[in-house]
Design brief:
The structure holds three protein chains of three kinds.
Chain A: H1 2-15, E1 25-30, H2 37-44, H3 47-54, E2 58-63, H4 67-76, E3 81-85, H5 86-94, E4 100-109, E5 113-118, E6 130-133, H6 138-149, E7 158-162, H7 167-173, E8 178-182, H8 185-190, E9 195-200, E10 209-215, H9 220-238, H10 242-255, H11 259-267, E11 269-271, H12 275-283, H13 286-300, E12 315-317, E13 323-324, E14 330-334, H14 337-343
Parallel strand pairs in A: 1-2, 1-3, 4-14, 6-7, 6-8, 12-14
Antiparallel strand pairs in A: 3-10, 4-10, 4-11, 5-8, 5-9, 12-13
Helix pairs in contact in A: 2-9, 2-10, 3-9, 4-5, 5-13, 10-11, 12-14
Chain B: H1 15-43, H2 53-64, H3 75-107, H4 109-124, H5 131-138, H6 142-166, H7 170-178, H8 183-220, E1 221-222, H9 226-233, H10 239-267
Chain C: H1 4-13, E1 16-25, E2 28-38, E3 43-47, H2 54-62, E4 69-74, E5 77-78, E6 86-89, H3 101-110, H4 118-135, H5 151-163, E7 169-173, H6 181-198, E8 202-206, H7 209-215, E9 218-223, E10 240-246, H8 260-274, E11 286-287, H9 298-308
Parallel strand pairs in C: 3-8, 3-9, 6-7, 7-8, 10-11
Antiparallel strand pairs in C: 1-2, 1-4, 4-5, 9-10
Helix pairs in contact in C: 3-4, 3-5, 4-5, 5-6, 7-8
The chains are: A alpha/beta, B mainly alpha, C alpha/beta.
Chain lengths: 347, 273, 310
Amino acid sequence: MHKLIGLIALLAAAALPGAALAQKSFDVCWSHYTGWEPWAYADEKGLLKKWAAKNGISVKLTLVNDYVESINLYTAGKYQACAMTNMDALTIPAVGGIDSTALIVGSFSNGNDGIVIKKGAAVKDLKGRKIKLVQFSVSHYLLSRALALNGMRERDVTLVNTSDADIASLFLAERDGAAVTWNPMLLKARSGKDVTLIFDSSKTPGEIIDLMVVKSNAPDTLKKTLAGAWYETMAVMSGQDKASRDALAFMAQKAGGTLAEFEAQIKTTRMFYKAGEAAAFVRGPELRKTMEYVRSFSFEHGLYGQGAKSKDAVGIAFPDGGTLGNAKNVKLRFDAVLMQAAADAKL
Amino acid sequence: MRRYLFFGVHADPPPWLRRLAAALPFVLLLALYLGASQLRLAENPDDKILPSLAQMADAVQRLAFRPDPRSEEYVMLKDTTSSLARLALGVGLSAATGLLLGLNMGLFPGMGAVLLAIVTFVSIVPPLAILPILFISLGVDELAKVALIFLGIFPLITRDIYNTVAALPREQITKALSLGANELQLAYRIVLPQVMPRLIETVRLSLGAAWLFLIAAEAIASTDGLGYRIFLVRRYLAMDVIIPYVLWITLLGYLIDWLLRLALRRLYPWYQA
Amino acid sequence: MNTTEQLSALRQKNLLHIENVYKQYGARVVLDNIDLSVARGELCTVVGPSGCGKSTLLRIVVGQEAPSSGDAFIEGAPAGYPDATRGIVYQKYSLFPHLTVLDNVLLGKVLESSIFGRVRARREHRDEAMQMLERARIAEHWKKYPHELSGGMQQRVAIAQALIKKPRIVLMDEPFGALDPMVREDMQVLLLELWEEYGMTVFFVTHDLEEAVYLGTRVIVLSQYYIDDRGAAAEQRGAKIVADHALPRRAFSTSVKSSPEFIELAAEIRRAGFDPTGARHVTQFNLSHPDSFQTLTAAESRALRAQEGP
C-alpha cells in the first residue's frame, strides 16, 4: 500500500506544470554511455558554464545513474534536455506527447551494440535459444534487425528481459548463452571463452543514434549553450595533442574504465567530431529510412501504447521539412540548424 | 456524561462512522490522483505519467481480457500465475524448512548448538546483495527466483519457530514424556501442532518481504511475471499498465493474507493471536 | 542411625526413595542432604516456606533435573528421565492447549499407538477417558479447549489426564495454588476421593500448610531454617527435611480443619519449618514417621555423640 502512496505522491509532485521555460536556469541530464561521456568533460572543465554565461543563463547538468529513469524524468518534466538514443526519443517522450528536438547528433553506434553467442557462429544459430537482453531497448531493435536480415522472426527465439547491470556476468555463467547488449558490457561478454560476436551495429550503421534531446519549446539560449559546449568539447577531443589525450583519460576515468578500454569503445562509436558532418548526416536520406525501421519496430512491439492505431500516430520531422507519420502531430524533430551554426562558427 | 463521536480518548465511533473514517484516506488519495491526472492531461493529452481511469481500464481490458495477438495468451493471467507459482514455491519451501529446522533446533539442544549460529548468520546476509550470485550460479530460470525468496525468508521463519519452541514451558515437555511420549512423538505430536498457528502468522508477516524479493528477481532476468511486466513497460513509461499492476499486486497480497487469517481461525480455534 | 542393610531394604520396599540428595546451582545450595522414602499408597505432602526448594525436589523426582549428588529411586531403580512411571500435575501448563479436554485425557493412550493406530486408539479408549472425566466431574465439557475452562476445571482435567496412565506415583506441584479458596477445597476433596478409589500414591508439594496437613497421610516439612555446626558457611546452606509426621486418616470433611488437633499440628509445623527463630538443631528434628531416616554427615554424627554423652 505505501508503495502506491509513494508513487502517487511522487507523480503529483511531478504533475505541477513545468514553469521552468520562462526561467533562466535549466536542468539537463545524462547517463553513462561512451558517446555521452564528453558531457561530463564539458561540465567539469567549465565549458558548459562558459557557454551558459555567454547566453545569459545557467545550466545544471545532472548524471542520472539509470538510463531509462533519466528519460522518464525528462518526459515527466524534471529536465529540459536529456541524452538518449533516437529510438528512445521516439518511444518515450515523443509518444508521451512531449515535443522533442534532436538538438545534437553526437555519434552513432558502429559496433558498440552487438549480439554474442556461445557455441554458435552465426545469427541462424540463435534459433531456439534463450536470448538475454533489455527488452524494448536498442538491443531489442538490433536483434530484430539481425533476425530480419537473416530471414528469421522473433518467434524463433525466447527473449529474457535482463537488467543491463547483470547481463554480462549472467551470459558468461551460462553454457549455451546468447545476449544482446552494448559497451562496456559487450566488451566483457566478448572476453569469455567460446564466445562469438555474430552481429553488431556496424552491420546496420547509422541506425542507433546518440542524441542530446531538448524540449522543442526550450529557448534558443539553452539550445545554443548545449551546442556550443558540446562542439568545443569535440574540438578538444579530436585534436591530436596532449589536451586530447587528457580529455580522453578524463572521460575514461569518468566511465569507470581504463584509457585503453575507453579508446576501444570510441573505435566502435562513430563520433561526429565536426558539427558539419553531423548536420550532413541529419540532412541525409539514410536517417529517414532508419526512422522508418525504428518506428515500425516500436509500433509492432506496442511501444506506441494502446491508444495508437498505427505507426503514423506520431509525426517525425526532418530538416528538409518532410515528415514521417502524422504531420499534424509532430513530436520528434531532427533539426540541423544549430549544428550548422556550430559548423559555421556562428553560435 | 457526554459521549464523543470521534475526538479524544473517550471517543466511541459507531460502525458507520468507523467505515466512513476508514474510507476517507482512500477517497482523498483517489481525488488527489484524479485531480493531478486531469491537470496533466489537459496540458498534454498524450501524457503517460498520470493516466486517467479510462486509460487504465483500457489497459486492463487489453492485458486481462483479450489474448495477446502474438503469443495468444492472456498476459495478465500468465503474469499472475507465473508470479504466484514462484511465490508459493518460495514461501512453501521456506515454511517447510523453517518449521523443520526451527522445531528441531528449539527442542533438541544439540541441533540448536549446530544450527543456531549459521541460521542467524544467513538471516543477516542481505538477500538482494547476493542476487547476482544467485542468478550466476543458478541460471536465469525459475530456480534463482525461488531461491531468492527462499533465502530471504526461511531464516526468519526458522528463527521465529525456534523462539516459539524454545519458549514452550519446560513443564509441557516433561508432561508429555510422563504420558509416555518418545522423542519423535514429542516433536511431531506435541510441539509441531502447537507451533503450526505460529507458522501461519510468521508466513503472513514474511509475505511482504517475499513479494519484494519476487519482484526484484523478476526485474533482473525474466520472461514473464508481474514484476517483469512492470519493469518492462517502465521502458516506455506505460503508467496505465504499471498502476493497475501495482493495485493488483496489493489486492493479491491482501487476499493471501486474508486466506491465511481465515485458515488460522478455522484450523486452530484454540490459538489466540 | 541406619545401617546399610536397613537402607537397602527401605529402597527396595518403598515406591519412592531419595538418598543423600544435594542440589546446587553454582555456589547456591538449594537442597542439603535430603533423605526420604515414601511407601505405596501414601499421600505424602511436602510443605515449606517459599524458596525452600520444594519444586526443585519435585523436579528431581520427576527426572526433569538431576541431583548434584545423591540418588533418587522409583521402585528400587534409578529414577532417570521423565517417563510414564510418574504422572504429573502442575499448577499451570499441565494441559496441551491444542487438544480438546477429551483429547488431553486420551493423549496418554494415543501415545501408546503408532501413527496409524491413532484413530483406533482414540475410539478404543474413549469410554475410559469419558469415565475418567466423569470421576473428575468435568465430563460435560469434553468438547472444549483448555482456554475455555476456568482454573479449577483445568485442574480436574489435568488430574484425569494423569490418572488414565495409571502411574505408580502421581507428582503434584502446587496443583491448587492458583485457585480460589472455595474451588480449592472442592479440589482437595476430589483428590482425596480419587486417592482412595484408585489406591494412588501421591507426592504433593504445596506452600499451604493447611492444605498439607488436611490432605496428607504424611507431612514432610522442608526448610532452610535449622541449626548445625558448620559455622559461617551455614549462611549458604540448603534446605533439609526438618520434620516428618505420620498423620491419622480422618474423615474427608473439610470441617476437620477447625478441630483443635489439626490446629495444634499446623502450629507445630509452622514453628518447626516456617519460623527462623524456632529453628532446631539437625540432630533434634522431629522425624517421627516410621519410614523416615537421616544420613548424618561426619560432623553431625560427632555433634550427636557429644549430646548423648560418653
